[in-house]
Structures are given as structure tokens and as C-alpha cells.
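HOLO CASE FILE
Compound: magnesium ion
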Amino acid sequence: MAGRQEERQRRLRPAIFLDRDGTINEQMGYINHLSRFHLLPGVGEAIRRLNEHDLPVVVVTNQSGLARGYFPESLLDAVHAEMHRLLALAGARLDGLYVCPHHPEAKDERYRLNCSCRKPKAGLLEQAARELGLDLARSYMVGDRWSDLRCGAAVGATSLLVLTGYGRGDLCYIGPGQAIQPAHVAEDLAAAVQWILERERRRTAQTM
Ligand SMILES: [Mg+2]
Ligand SMILES: [Zn+2]
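Model generated. C-alpha cells follow.
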């Protein structure tokens, strides 16, 4: 029994979880129109590098704009189709995309829920882990908000803060004395991916 558990654990893969707004695309408030969705520089290439290293890339995003009635689900679908299209142009792809549409005070009662998936809660990561066979403790969470770091910490993942989006502002939350600290602070997603790949290379060298 223990052997089977170990076997299963070995088969689980580490993933790279990415926040969306401010990490992949420019921070523009609520993305309530396609014209507000712009990939940040170097993002396509950074995700392609993860693809080339066979590291699953999973986007986890809070989209309370749905709950607040700022945009319909059809707009969110169109934005994500555009995201996939722009990434594909750079030869990159996502292995998963998980969205929390909830808010406890949602205008639309379908989304009015004190859910367990709105970051910093870990529901999206846990769902992805179940569905994609991921090892959360060996995974990485990259985002521009302190809530992303808290979310990563909640599942024992290695968290990185990027300084794009709200990152520079949220640096104030990780001063001395704060319990939750990022393992690394990176200028942008490309720099975060560079750090992750170097760390993975060292880890693989150690276990060989
Ligand atoms: Mg963000
Ligand atoms: Zn939720």
C-alpha cells in the first residue's frame, strides 16, 4: 500500500502556476473588453521555455468582474481565446486555465458565494492538482500580488513575486516581520522562469 502511494507521488508532476492579470497581461483594471488585453513583453517566450522543459503551465485567476456584473462570461471566453491565440503565435501553450468567478457580495446570485477557490484560497490549485496529476509541494506559484504568494504558501509551493502589475506596490507586504515571503522577487515573468529553470536544473542534478 505504501509502495503504491510512493509510486503515485513519483508520477505526479510539479507545475508552474501563473496568475493572469499583471503577470501575463498588463494590469488594466477589469478586462471588460478585448482591447484591454495585452500580453506583457517576453511572456510568450517565457511560457514556451516552460513548455520545452515539459513543465505544465497552469493559469489560476480570480475574475470577480463576472460576479460584479462588469462583464459576461462570453467576454471572459473571448479574452481567453485571445490569450491562447497570442501565446500560440509565440509557440507557447497552457496546460490548464482555472478561473474563480465568485465573490461573497456578487450582484449575480449565480456567483454569490464565499467559495474556496478565490485566491488566496487554494481551491483552484487543488482542483488543477487533482485533474492534471500535479505535485503541489514541488510546484511554483508566480504572481504580482501578495494574495498569490499566500495562495502558493497555502499548498506548500514555492512562490515568486513579479514586479509587473501590482508587484512593486505589493512589495510593501513582504517586508521584514511578514510570515509569508516569496522565494524570489523577479522583474517580470521571463526572469521568474529563468530562476525556476535554474532551480529545477540544480534539483535534477542532485537527484541523479
Ligand atoms: Mg495579478
Ligand atoms: Zn471561487
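CASE NOTES: Helices lie at 2-11, 43-52, 64-67, 73-89, 123-132, 146-154, 167-170, 189-207. The pocket of zinc ion (ligand 2) is lined by residues 100, 102, 115, 117-118 (CB under 6 Å).
CLOSED: yes
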